[in-house]
Amino acid sequence: MSRFAEYVNLTRIREAQRLLRETRHSVTLVSELAGFDNFSHFGKMFKRLSGVSPREYRNMERTAGRTD
Predict the structure, then answer these.
(1) Residue 11 CB neighbour total at 10 angstroms
(2) Quick one: DSSP state of residue 36?
(3) What 8-state DSSP symbol labels residue 2?
(4) Which of 6, 16, 31, 52 could form a disulfide with 36 if both were Cys (CB 3.0 to 4.6 A apart)?
């Protein structure tokens, strides 16, 4: 993968992370809003660059943000 493609994917994943933290959109919609045409590719790239699946990421962020 070229450096440019890697940069684009990283930028899209960062946007997906923001959307997962700040919205209640479905993971499918988040993938589309972040610029991914293929949901399976989104899931693979997200896990490769974040270390966890999009759903796991959202659950971790929600748990970390709790104050109770």
Answers:
(1) 12
(2) -
(3) -
(4) 31
Whether the Cβ atoms of residue 12 and residue 35 lie closer than 8 Å to each other: yes
* Cα–chain center distance at 22: 12
Q: Specify the residue for token string 């933290």.
A: 21
For residue 46, CA distances in Å to 6, 10, 31, 49, 66 come to 12, 9, 10, 5, 24
- Neighbour-count burial of 4, counting CB atoms closer than 10 A to its CB (0-12 exposed, 13-18 middle, 19+ buried): exposed
Q: What is the pLDDT of residues 52-68, one digit of tens each?
A: 999 999 999 888 876 55
Tokens of 51: 């270390």
pTM of the model: 0.88
